Amino acid sequence: MGLEAKHKKTTTYTATRSIVISHNIVKEYRANQSNNQDSLVNEDVNLMPTYKDIAENGTIAAATRHNLSKSLRSKYSTSDIKSAINAKITPQSLVMDLKAETSSAKDSVAIVNGTARAMQQKLPKLQPGSGKVTMLQKATVSDASSSTHPSTKKYAVVGIALGGLLGLIISFIGVTIKNFIK
Questions:
Q1: What pLDDT is recorded for position 149?
Q2: How far is the C-alpha of 120 from the C-alpha of 137, rounded, in Å?
Q3: Is the pTM of this model over 0.90?
Q4: Based on the domain organization, do 137 and 176 belong to the same domain?
Q5: Distances (CA, A) of 149 to 1, 11, 21, 154, 158
Q6: Which phi-psi region, left, alpha or beta, contains residue 134 (left: φ > 0; alpha: ψ -120 to 50)?
Q7: Of the candidates 150, 165, 177, 172, which has an alpha carbon nearest to the alpha carbon of residue 10?
Q8: In terms of C-beta density within 10 A (0-12 exposed, 13-18 middle, 19 or more buried), how is residue 161 classed?
Q9: pLDDT tens-place string over residues 6-41
Q10: Please, are residues 126 and 54 in contact by the beta-carbon 8 Å criterion?
């Protein structure tokens, strides 16, 4: 089983970039003195699930693909990018974490940075009245995390355990048949 796991082993790389989506509270507050600035922040917080759905949408994936280099555009289709992107929001926060998972750290970084740019460009057109998208620290290859599946060690331990169990069963059956024949 350990050899099987080693043969099936794949490594994926995940790059993360955070964006903030909010209105300029001071500017909006001055423009409309009767409106409370807390309600504007609450509206932005309440719209975060919508922004998450937009970030994972095919329209943003297409815009992301457009932002990629020519070599990456030939390598990844819009549906590949859509399946690679995952957006995560934290309750009561205006920060959205964009994650891209691919088989290459460099590709993951390019896709997640392209998605952040696509959100900045396309969100105001897709959701009129949405807040401004502010991109936080750019994703880099050195910050990308990797995970390898399946674990060769776990499969080897399971293989040893199953081999031992199978050996015990065969031994038990052999002894039982031997005693039955006598």
A1: 65
A2: 14
A3: no
A4: no
A5: 14, 7, 34, 10, 15
A6: beta
A7: 150
A8: exposed
A9: 566 677 889 999 999 887 655 544 445 544 555 777
A10: yes
Enter the tokens of residue 4: 């099987």
Q: Tokens 């969100």 identify what position? A: 123
Q: Are residues 102 and 15 in the same domain?
A: yes
CATH of the domain at 100: 3.30.1890
pLDDT over 90, % of the chain: 20
Please return the burial class of 134, using the count of CB atoms within 10 Å of its CB with bins 0-12, 13-18 and 19+: middle
Total number of domains constituting the chain? 2
The pair of three-digit structure tokens given for residue 146, joined into one six-digit string: 């990797």
Same domain, 32 and 49: yes
Q: What separation in angstroms does the CA of 44 have from each of 67, 117, 145?
A: 26, 19, 30
* Mean pLDDT value across the chain: 82
